[in-house]
Amino acid sequence: MTFRVNGVSYEVAPRPGQCLRTLLRELGWFGVKKGCDAGDCGACTVHVDGRPVHSCLFPAFRAEGHCVTTIEGLAETVEGPGLHPMQQAFLEAQGFQCGFCTAGMVMTAAALDQAQKHDLPAALKGNLCRCTGYRAIADAIEGQCAVEPDAAGASVGRSLPAPAGPAIVTGAARYTMDVAPAGELAGLTHMKILRSPHAHARILRIDTAAALAVPGVVAVLTHEDAPARLFSTARHHHVTDDVDDTRVLDTLLRHVGQRVAAVIAETEAAAEAGCAALRVDYELLPAVFDAEAAMIPGAPLVHGDKGPESRIADPARNLVAELQGGVGDVEAGFAAADVVHEATYTSQRVQHAHLETHGAIGWRDGEGRLVIRTSSQTPFLTRDALATLYDLPRAAVRVFTERVGGGFGGKQEMLTEDIVALAVMKTGRPVKLEYTRAEQFAFSTSRHPMRVGVKLGATREGRLTALALTMLLDTGAYGNHGPGVMYHGAGECIALYRCPNKKVAARAVYTHSLPSGAFRGYGLSQTIFAVESAMDELARKLGLDPFALRRLNVIGPQDEMTSAGGGAHDVEIGSYGLDQCLDWVEKALDAPGREALPEDWLVGRGMAAAMIDTIPPRGHVAQTRLMLAEGGGFELLTGTAEFGNGTTTVHRQIAATVLGVPVDRLHVRQSDTDIVAHDTGAYGSTGTVVAGEATRRAAERLAAAIREAGAARLRVSPAECRIEADAVRAGADAVPLAALAPLEATGDAGGSPRSVAFNVQGFEVAVHRRYGEIRILRSFHAADAGTVINPMQCRGQVEGGVAQAIGAALYEELTLDGQGAVTNASFRSYHIPAFADVPHTQVFFARTQDRVGPLGAKSMSESPYNPVAPALANAIFDATGVRLRAPPFKADTLYALLPADDGRRFHAPSSGEPESPLENAANED
Amino acid sequence: MDLNSVTAIVRPRARSEFAPPGAGDAILGGGTWLFSEPQPGVRRLIDLTDLNWPPLQASASGLSIAATCTVERLYGFDPPPDWRAASLIAACCRSFLASFKIWSMATVGGNLCLALPAGPMISLCAALEGTCVIWRADGGERRMPAIDFARGPLDNALEPGEVLRAIELPVEALRRQAAFRRASLTPLGRSGVLVIGTRAPDGRFALTVTAATRRPVQLRFEPMPGARLLADRLATAIPDALYHDDIHGRPDWRRHMTRELAEEIRDELAEGAG
Questions:
Q1: Pairing with B93, which of A269, A519, A917, B155 sits 20 to 30 Å away (CA)?
Q2: A496 and A419 in contact (C-beta within 8 Å)?
Q3: Chain B interface, mutation test: which of A26, A119, A125, most B Cβ atoms within 10 Å?
Q4: What is the assigned CATH class of domain B56-172?
Q5: Where is the chain membrane-spanning (chain B) (predicted)?
Q6: Nearest CB to A771; choose among B6, B94, B260
Q7: Do residues A102 and A86 lie in contact, with contact meaning Cβ atoms separated by under 8 Å?
């Protein structure tokens, strides 16, 4: 057939069942993204004869005779040079973070008429963004400008645009799969994985003959091809932080969806057909799906075959890790309490749902090295893990990422690279593995489901006398991140409170479910939901305002932070803005609200506080190399990956500020094991505070070297020299930077000491008395991020975190069928927040400067997620008197709990009179 | 997504070229569902496009909607002023979880054939007492009430070899007064409950429940019932097991909301009577 794409005429023969999306990508139009491949997310939106369609649903053969426009050709559809106005608008408002959804978002927005632009919740139903919370996208479509101009040497504190912006809005940015099968990738093969249909089974036999006979099938990988070595898919600075319980391909299957075998073929279709042709005999084994049941003697064992070398706490009890600790004497503390509150809070299994699914491409480079191009937050740790797994020298492996389409912790794992590497080594061919959206949902990792018991004791004045926390984590079939999430989850949620007696008892337990892993907040979102809900319940019992109870008990700037043990030795309160955060949210909630609602709506307010260590414990390293290059520009090489967290922008701002030059002089290259010595990874909110610190140090050194070199030329002392934009000046004399090149400096950061960041969330909600429907009327978030290096980006991190957490609080839950299989592995059944679901959140930044972080900055990427669910639960209670202790909070359960007669609880919304929590408390229980 | 098991497409231009679908065949309307999920059993696509069915035909007897009419085309339909119930067309189109980008491809017939409880074209055609026109495998044609076409999730009333040709909405229904209510667990999400009431000038009242139930349920009253009678009839007509149970709403909530919304509709139409 003949059709045109962006003005280019093509004569092609699409496959009968092919969709337009894959045809366009085969033709090299990589701006067309695969987010879901099912018509739900809109990342693949293109125009056919000017009308927007989801190209993943559009039968390719129907493009015959039509004109297709992709993001790459959008600018050509309008008169004049430069970008399409909508591309320009997305740049000016910075309406993106990772940018993976942006092409589809821009293509959709560019096609909206005026009426649709006035009803964005409906108009953008077909476009999902997981990063931004949509505010910046709305700003773009409404024509708001968020970016500020740069000033040489003073770029910190300004809302400068992301350097990748122009490439993102034009579709030129390259994500993991955006590479043509040419050059070293010529002859690219495709991998598909046959996955276990059983939760617990032994592979008796795999007959590969029929699969190998499928035309196009190149190889089949089974456990016989895999190394015997055990590892963990989790990536940490110390490999011993995780349990070694995983094989690349195992004979024992411990969850539905575990790899059984992999087929490598010339096409995806042949690989699929090969998988379908594999014949496997299984011996079915009993399985356990509940963490409590898994600990009962006689329960089926998930890793009963493992020895001490795996570092599993007790394989005979399905116990991955266990923590008992505390300070003081909680029994005495409870005895001294006037009021005791005790309850259990449950957090569900949720998926990261980054728009770019997991995937990797592997090949051998010209020197014979194994090269992995991947979608990872930890390219260096993955390089190390591959070297260990396959007994290769580190230098024989290169791992890199280009732009990564979102992470949220999900990519702090080696989920694809290990088997891609094996396939490359077995076939000698380049190999690509790209997860489908269904695989992403059902067979990757999730947040740890957690059952958290909280017991609080307090004096009648409201001072905490004792605090006991019990945690039960369902780590699933593999222990990746199980111990880490358990330890971290037990920390800051209670370290936030000054209480002499604390006790923690935590267990992470195996079940035959899909593996839980790292997820934004790393355990804290679950425990903070529990503790902050419990604090609210305690406040009600005491007749105290929730803000007042917090102020009585939160740590002050001089207090020691204690949890399971004493304070971690290298954590200090490098700056303290919690008081500002509490004050601001309280004031915002007290201000009059918007509109009065019909009488069926019950209105209430709630808040929650959160604290997080700015860096993970026990070391987190980063390195930055900074070079003054020929021509006078700077090259900044850093290991940390960019997946929408905005660190590339921040690194440029830090370096430019220290060097005294405009940011556009700095060109950043990153996340490639070839360019710096090491980088622990972009996790634990470290992109700014660790990698940024490495950049700051490199910049200080390079600035000193430049001044020295300039001084030598100008025959003055370095102290007399200053860098001014493009030259070194001393008095009236100057030498151009270009004349001093090349110069290079390296900065290293080790991730210690660490500080703490604070977040406070407040909501006003309305609950429909008859329907149980929950509406967020107002949302306020205060964050103490220290020096805010880029206010626009930092606000975006907060808004995105709040939006993602609203999803987990109100909508999201991966559901299992009772036999370990996920039943809602699509965006249609697993609802992540769309434009219509996310309220405007007003964001406040505390005015603090941290003495630990680079230029006074603290981390602000995971933490905004953490106080959202409890603040919502607390607001719902305030509105209705119903206490919800297990998200997601949905109308279909809430309606039945609502009091039939609302009269006693109803109050007019936001009359300006602060309501008295005492009155509510009097009515309660 | 690519349907890699598909090896052929047929594109009949007239009924004479249309061979009844058999094993491994899938009827391709807009493709918006077909291409959204793996279809390992499908070998051949029968594309209806070139049959060139006129999408919408309004006449004195009502509105005939071709199965291949897109949602977008239907949404843009400009009804005669006395077709008061035609307001349901836009309301039902807006009830799609999918956006306007899907409406330009998705077909009315496709939505009916999918037979999902939340299919809003099912709600529309059932509430307006439409008739499904079906091409039979033997070359003939048969008709059946739209209310009976969707039998349960992914289960329609087509016999092997049959294809849905059109849905005819009678003018009598289009001229009624109508009321519409919908509930979803998310602000613009998939319908968990969709209830439509129509009231004829002679006082007859029909209540059509979709989304909440595994298949459409219609109750007819003459004259307008009181609140108690309506609730009783709902309880009798919809046993608990008929309420749909999936991630988009628990069955007890669907039952509760059906009652609430039905009563709101009764109230609205009783008020507006005469």
A1: B155
A2: no
A3: A125
A4: alpha beta
A5: none
A6: B260
A7: no
Calpha distance A67→A8 (Å, rounded): 9
B27 vs B114: CA distance, rounded Å: 11
Residue A49 has a CB neighbour count (10 Å cut-off) of 12
Q: Quote the Cα angle for A619-A620-A625, to 5°.
A: 130
Q: Do A895 and B9 touch (CB under 8 A)?
A: no
What distance in Å separates the CA atoms of residue A365 and residue A673, rounded to the nearest whole number?
A: 14
> Do B45 and A59 count as a contact with CB atoms less than 8 A apart?
yes
Tell me the β-bridge partners of B206.
Answer: B198, B220
Distance (Å) from the alpha carbon of B250 to chain A's nearest alpha carbon: 6
Q: What chain B residue is nearest to A893 in terms of C-alpha separation? A: B253
Instruction: Tell me the CATH number for domain A450-616+754-923.
Output: 3.30.365.10
CB contact under 8 A, B99 and A773: no
pLDDT score for A916: 37
Domain at A183-285+369-406+411-443: CATH architecture: Alpha-Beta Complex (3.90)
Question: Which of A516, A838, A39, A121 lies closest to B32 in space, CA to CA?
Answer: A39
| Element housing A292 (H / E) | helix A291-294
Residue A647 has pLDDT above 60, yes or no: yes
Q: CA–CA separation, A841 vs A778, rounded Å?
A: 7
What is the sign of the dihedral through the CA atoms of A313, A314, A319 and A320?
Answer: positive
Q: How confident is the model at residue A914 (pLDDT cuts 50, 70, 90)?
A: very low
For chain B, how long is the longest CA-to-CA vector?
A: 59
Cβ-defined contact of B4 to A62 (cutoff 8 Å): no
**Spatial separation of the C-alpha atoms in residues A912 and A409, rounded to whole Å:** 41
The full 3-state SS of A809-820, as one line of letters, equals HHCCCCCECCCC
Cα angle: A109, vertex A115, A118; to 5 degrees:
70
Neighbours of A149 (CB within 10 A): 9
Give every CB contact of residue A901 below 8 A, 6+ residues apart in sequence: none
Among chain A residues, CA nearest to B246: A829
- Its pTM stands at 0.96
**Nearest neighbour of B253 by CB, restricted to A51, A276, A892:** A892
Distance in angstroms (rounded) separating the CA atoms of residues A125 and A128? 8
Residue A894's pLDDT band (boundaries 50, 70, 90)?
A: very high
Measure CA A207 to chain center: 40
CB contact under 8 Å between A123 and B3, yes or no, is no
Do A2-170 and A450-616+754-923 have matching folds? no
Cα A922 to its chain centre, rounded Å, is 41
List the domain boundaries for chain A.
2-170, 183-285+369-406+411-443, 450-616+754-923, 622-749
Q: For residue B23, how many other CB atoms are within 10 A of its CB?
A: 8
CATH fold, domain B175-271, is: Enolase-like; domain 1 (3.30.390)
Residues B207-230: tens digit of each pLDDT: 999 999 999 999 999 999 999 999
Query: Is B131 in contact with B151 (CB distance < 8 Å)?
Result: no
Q: Where are the beta strands (DSSP E) in A557-676?
A: 601-613, 622-628, 634-638, 666-670
Length in residues, chain A: 925
Condensed to tens digits (0 to 9), the pLDDT of residues A183-219 reads 999 999 999 999 999 999 999 999 999 999 999 999 9
Tell me if A811 and B185 make a contact (CB, 8 A cut-off): yes
Q: Any idea which fold A2-170 has?
A: Ubiquitin-like (UB roll) (3.10.20)
Reduce the DSSP state of residue A838 to 3 states and report it: coil
Distance between CA atoms of residues B212 and B193, nearest Å = 4
The reply to whether ipTM tops 0.95 is yes
**DSSP alpha helix (H) spans, chain B:** 71-75, 87-94, 100-103, 108-114, 120-127, 171-174, 227-237, 251-271
